[in-house]
Amino acid sequence: MQNIWPVFLPIGEVVAMVLAARVLLHYFQLESYQFHGYFKTIGRQWKRAFLPGIVLNAAFAICLLCFSSYLMADSVFYLPIAAVQILLGVWLYRRAVKTPQKKKFALTARMKRLYAAFTLVCLAAVWLNIKGLNASGHWERANESWGLTALLLFCLRPSLFLPLLVALAGAAALPIERLIFHLYFRDAEKKLLENPRLIRIGITGSYGKTSTKFILAEILSQKYNVLATPASFNTPMGVTRIIRERLTPSHQVFIGEMGARHVGEIKELSRLVHPAIGILTAVGPQHLDTFKTMERIEKTKYELIDALPDDGLGVFLHDGAIVTKLYEKTQKPKLLVGRENADAWATDVSVSPQGSHFTLHLKGWEPFPCQTALLGEHNISNILMASAVAKRLGLNKEQISRGIAQLKPIEHRLQLLKNPGGVAVIDDAFNTNPRSSKEALKVLSAFPGRRVIVTPGMVELGAEEEKYNEEFGQAMASAVDVAVLVGRRHTAPIQQGLAKAGFPAENIHVAANLNEAVGIVNGILRSGDVVMYENDLPDNYNEG
Q1: Least C-beta-crowded within 10 Å: which of 75, 92, 314, 521?
Q2: pTM of full prediction above 0.70
Q3: What fold does the segment set 195-405 form as a domain?
């Protein structure tokens, strides 16, 4: 019976590893369980990623040295060593939980399965470690030389490789996840196709797709019962989930936003949605770190148009560049918006901090005035695409005009917030990119008073990231009076751009994180100022 005591040592180690890996599992979840993004996060956050394993290893070695003269096969002293490991694991877990998080860790069904796989991987790693030590004879010689053995065990403990073990668990769980996704995917596809009268619309683009989705849903709701994917649910699993959980036989229109980081992902989403109408908002340098080239981005976005049936409808925003070129090559029924005498365009545009007024032209109709509370001239382009689709689906002028007037600011996308202190706050915290950042600066420059921007800059732009951030800094110089930059390393190119444009150095403040930035802003703001929060990076981009 006494020989069971050594068993507590590996049990304690496995429990501690599972608890201590909480921060790493969160990183994996934030990267949508993608290995490429996860390993990039580990590279950025190497201190936080490896600290739990280092702490557990150090504690293990110290305990072995302290108890070395008492450790034998029948020794009860294995129990306190295991207890110390578990207590440290609990402390590391609670530390991770209490750390402020912009996007909370979610214990989803997939995460539960990942936890199970990770536990098995940890058990296997500890077992192999013990087998290796037994084979080398270190356990048998433990009583003779515990100091040397403790050092060896410290250097070889599996917990030191926690980031890799999490990745191995993800790989081990992948076949099960693919099977589950396939079953859910087929179920959602079947549910969509059960209603032959359901109008299915897909929206993609490098930017503007979420705003266009919400605008289109609001306008079409003047006539139809519409289901649109909420927030930024634009992955195959996200869209699948919404269809399975929310689509009912009473819905007449389904609008699916389609995002992508790799070639083929829009094609997969199109196989799910089977869109009859496809809207292409823009093609630009977004997610260049995974796409690598603009050609691959262009090919991926066009997968939506390729997926349309021969009698389907493609809707393109005239940009005088890539999207216009894709419109011209398309042989299926199509609409072009944003150019005079096209299928939809705007004149008499008046943009202010209160919203926009314009005259809407829809081909074949008399023009009519419209107004919206949405900020930014780019939102008029989004409205044009939605209006062109609405006309094609049978809405009249009154319904389209009323839908435009009822549009509300979209959360975290140039959302003007009321502040009782006389300070205007513009929340544009979601997913800044080269195009949207320029539009945001246009909006900010239209406001009176002192203009303050808070930003960490742009990410996921691959090798071009520093260039785009430097250009962002140069453009910022003429639109703002005070710049509060979040992240000392990542915003260095923005600082260079500001300096090149002659921006006063005393008006540049650099904060380590968003909380520190908010403290700086609160210390300098006064009544009549306007502050814009431009992009807010998730926790896996925090510097440290």
Answers
A1: 75
A2: yes
A3: UDP-N-acetylmuramoyl-L-alanine:D-glutamate ligase (3.40.1190)
